[in-house]
Sequence to fold (463 residues):
Amino acid sequence: MAAHLDRIDERNPALNAVVTLRDRDTLMAEAGTCDDELAAGLSRGWMHGLPIAVKDLAETKGIRTTSGSRLLAHHVPDHDCLMVQRMKRAGCIVIGKTNVPEFGFGSHTYNDVFGPTHNAYHHGRSAGGSSGGSAVALASRMVPVADGSDYMGSLRNPPAWNNVFGLRPSQGRVPAWPSLDAYLAQMSTEGPMARTVLDLALLLGTQSGPHPMVPLALDSMLDEYATIHSARGALDAAADLTGRRIGWLADLNGHLAVEPGILAACEDGLRRLESLGCTVEPVALPMEPDRVWSVWRTWRHQAAAGSLAAVAADPAKAALMKPELLWEVEHGLPLTGPDLTTAARERTVFHTRMVELLTAFDAVVLPTAQVWPFAVEQHWPTHIAGREMDTYHRWMEATIYATLAGLPAVNVPVGFSDGTAPGVPAGLPMGMQVIGRPRADTEVLGIAHAYESTIGHLGVGGA
Fold:
């Protein structure tokens, strides 16, 4: 506890990743209790005594939870959300929160409550989002492991930009409670980030498992990730990649605008997979990308309007919200029942085609991000490689495919910018996302575990 708090004192003033930090004396006393328990032969679990800063979208009992919004700047929940309950049962000590963009919208962590979070590898550059504070705290070793949540890449883009691992689990793997909607809201999921795949698997095991209040949660418990010994054995057993077929989606045949150097960095990662016995083949997305994007926008607008329309209708409150949120609500309000039915059917078509694709391939891969970490004062990239972005989130399009299909996807680090791309300094991290078959979280983690053995030179999690 003392070492991590000292590290926060050292690094956080410049990075602004950890917010609402609890009192040091109180935390040291709680850590002392954990020491006394160990001395008595008692352990709460593999996280016993680990200091954890929880993403500021997740509710924490007695600890301010702002969601990065001035509307909730003084909100202190009277309960822990299910994920936090499970991490506490495994032994962690919650030390505070990690910074997020307002209500989690946008893959750049800045807000009017705490300000921006800086990239762990390059001050003045974006940390990604919405789990940007978590990824930076993890990469800069202010915390040992980190939770996050993912709607449009938030467990993948921040890890890619901070040189760590992040897993978007299969839909339903990590149930969320409390929730105003346990049926329709099936796009977001909580999940783990870590500096090693072993830690990633352990945290997933803690977060996973059914809950009676979450009707669409998966039944399996992932018991193999309950202890360090069993998790290491499960990962080793899944790490033989001989003969695995990997489909390389690249930039979707030019559909995705991608900054120079990113595809080349991912191709370096693919060569590492080939060195492990994989066969890598180019493959096409099994549905027209514009058609997929249309489905995505419908559901994104619906989610925003459903949760924020009443707030945005109050002019005083709307004045405290960033324009991108109001834009989402504005486009969500006119949606009709038939619009949502059409979008649901189109999403079903996409899921079916992705599953069919993954009968021929063990996994498909594409870049985690389309741009290198950009300047922290820039709200979002308006252009990529000379192409104009038509919405505030079009630059994140590469992340929507795992989300829409509910598939597990892990970010693995691939390297750093070399300084040759215009306006891109050397040393900015990048990752690629490995998307697996339905509910094949263990298989995806096995691929990441094998891949991890090839990237020691990248200094993963060593900012």
Observations:
- The CA atoms of residues 136 and 258 lie 23 Å apart.
- Residues 2-458 form a domain with the Amidase signature (AS) enzymes fold (CATH 3.90.1300.10).
